[in-house]
Structure formats: C-alpha cells, structure tokens
Design goal:
This protein has about 375 residues and is an alpha+beta fold. Helix content is about 50%, strand content about 15%. Helix 4 runs antiparallel to helix 5, helix 6 packs antiparallel against helix 7 and helix 6 runs parallel beside helix 8.
C-alpha cells in the first residue's frame, strides 16, 4: 500500500505553509481576557491571501475554476492552518462548497462555486442542532409551499454566521427526509443572536421563522447532509491534528531549554514518557484522519460505512487533542498559563475542537450503533 501524498496534494501543503507563515496566533485579544468575542470579523486579509494562492478553489472542480482536489488535500491545508490558529472559515466554506458541487446540481454550483474560489462568497454550516447534542437536521422543519420551501426552527453554535454570505441549514421534511437549505444572511425571517465559542470566536444562534427560500436554493438529494456532516467532522479532526502537532513542538522546545538541577527537564524520564505518549496520540490521530478522509473522497467500501471511520477519527481527535494540551500545560508549569504566551490560546481552541460536532462519547455511541447494525464478519 502506498501512503504517500500526490504531487498536487504536496503542492497544496507548500502553498498553505507559505500563506500561513506570516500568521501570528496572538493576532487578536486573548480569549481568557475577553468577556465577549475576540473580534467581530474573521481574518479578511488572510482570506484574500488564501484566494490569491488558489487555496479557496482547491476542492472546486476545474469547470468552476478550481483544482478539483479531494478531501485529503483539504485536510492537509486545514492541518497547516491550525498550527497558527488561523481565524478563517476555511473548513465550513470548503465543506459546503464541496457538498453543493456533489449534490446541488449545475445551476446551483455555477452560481456559487466560482465566487467561493475567488474569495467573494463565504459559507458556513449549522451543524449543532438546538443544543449541540441532538441531530442538527431535526432542529428545523422544511415544508413545500408552491415553488418555495418554508423553514422553521433553531440552530445553535453556528460558526462565522455573522460574516458568512450563505448558511447551509439542515432540516427535516414531513416524510422524514433530511434536506439542506442555503439561506442568505439577512434573509427575511432569519435572526442571528450572538454566542461565543470556547476559543473566543463569535458564533450565532440562528432562528428561522417562516423563512421562505426558492426551490433551487435547497438540496434534497439523498445523503447530502450526511456527507456534509461527515466532511465537517473529518475536517475538525485535521484541525485537531495540526493544533496538537504545534503544541507538542512548543512543549519540546520549552522542556529542552528549561533546566532543573542543572539539566534540561526534557532529559527527565517522567517528562520524556509523557511526551512520548502524546506523540503516540498524534500518530493515531493522523492514521485515523487519513482513513476517514480517504473513505469520504473515494467512497471505497469497508466492513462499516464511512461514518464508522469518521467516528473513529473523531474519537481519537477529541481525546488526543485534549490529552496533548493538558500534558503541555503540565510540562510548561506556570508558564503555560501566562496570557502573554500562546499556549493558553491553543488550549482554548483544542477544547472547542474536542466538543465540535460531538465529543468522543457521542461518537463512541454512534460507532456502537454501527457495529450493532453491521456485525463484523457477518
């Protein structure tokens, strides 16, 4: 088996590193010192540089001006973005764009995808339902009224909603089907209330009160919402991996310089063992991430549906990134809590990623249900 990345995927990584090289993790106020959001906007100058480097069109098909790469390429770029805590809706915009491309039809794709690749259109997704613990598609109802669909309900914790041009909102129909509506920000009947993420970013509670959208702005293809949710979860795993790699690197640098009893603390067995355990976490996070991204991108068969691999990846990402930042705080001592040092920012982002789209326990339950429905070896 060949686990090497393609030349195109490697080129995407190099382009991402060049763009993100000038990003400082402490470019906004500390979430520990901010009673509200750390900023009202995402990093628009960085967004423009991503568009200029063709990274916003990376996963968009060539007929719409993109490179036509796969979820693995997207995850490679997301991994680099998390190392510097890049404040951009790259995951949400790319995931929704890929879903439109795959399930939305030519007319919808032609109107959205070229503008996404040019950086002119920002997309986000409402994936948390009413509480963050229930199925997102059950939080909103969708019913047909002539040539329109009417949406009613509420979604919580919608990232970048105040900055996005379109919100992808899952909903359920009267016959139990899951559909995906693209609702413009500012649309009549849509209300956004401020919420704040653990990382200090501005999220929103989106309320939909008889929101009417045209039939062409709703994707009712079977599997569209499940595919988008899986892609969002896998992208979150990529962000957790990149963040964890940077935090472990910071810890290695610090413990190599910090001395006690005349020796660097990195030479102490207890410190080395803890760092080694976290390295094992990273490698497990990486292996399960690429398995999930490969299953999504290729549709390859397996003992379980792709959602099983996604659940495994999210379990490792949630538990792994939590252990990595906790160990880093421990090995940094009091210095790790200094708000002039960026480690506490990574800790806040890690907690957000750990819980995004469900903590490890939720995915363990989902995996158990899959195993019950698909007995291995049966």
């Amino acid at each position: 088996m060949d686990f090497t990345f393609t030349e195109e995927q490697q080129a995407a990584v190099e382009a991402a590193r060049a763009v993100f090289s000038g990003v400082a993790p402490d470019g906004v106020p500390s979430p520990a010192l901010s009673p509200g959001a750390v900023a009202e906007e995402f990093d628009r100058p960085l967004w423009a540089r991503l568009a200029g480097a063709d990274l916003l069109s990376l996963v968009i098909a060539p007929q719409h001006g993109g490179a036509g790469l796969d979820p693995i390429a997207l995850c490679l770029v997301l991994r680099e973005s998390a190392k510097v805590l890049a404040r951009v809706p790259l995951l949400e915009t790319s995931a929704v764009a890929m879903t439109v491309q795959r399930f939305g039809g030519e007319a919808l794709g032609s109107g959205i995808l070229p503008r996404v690749g040019a950086g002119e259109l920002v997309l986000t997704a409402a994936a948390n339902g009413r509480t963050g613990h229930d199925a997102a598609e059950l939080a909103v109802t969708a019913r047909q009224d002539g040539d329109f669909w009417v949406l009613d309900g509420m979604q919580t914790g919608v990232p970048w909603a105040q900055c996005a041009d379109l919100l992808a909102v899952p909903a359920h129909t009267g016959d139990g089907r899951a559909v995906l509506a693209l609702v413009p920000r500012g649309h009549e009947g849509l209300t956004l209330a401020e919420q704040f993420s653990t990382s200090g970013e501005l999220f929103a509670e989106a309320r939909l009160d008889s929101v009417r959208i045209e039939r062409g702005a709703l994707i009712d293809a079977e599997g569209a919402w499940d595919w988008l949710r899986g892609l969002l979860a896998t992208g979150t795993c990529a962000l957790a991996l990149g963040l964890g790699e940077r935090v472990l690197s910071m810890t290695s640098e610090y413990t190599s310089k910090r001395e006690q009893f005349g020796f660097p603390v990195a030479t102490f067995q207890a410190v080395a063992v803890q760092a080694a355990d976290r390295y094992i976490d990273l490698r497990a996070m990486e292996a399960t991430l690429w398995q999930a991204a490969w299953r999504i991108g290729t549709g390859a068969g397996g003992a379980l549906p792709p959602s099983g691999d996604i659940a495994v990846a999210k379990i490792w990402a949630s538990e792994g990134v939590r252990r990595i930042v906790q160990t880093a705080q421990h090995l940094h001592g009091g210095f790790g809590a200094d708000t002039d040092y960026p480690l506490h920012r990574y800790h806040a982002w890690a907690k957000q990623l750990e819980l995004s789209l469900g903590p490890a326990a939720a995915h363990e339950e989902a995996l158990g249900d899959l195993l019950a429905a698909h007995p291995l070896g049966a």
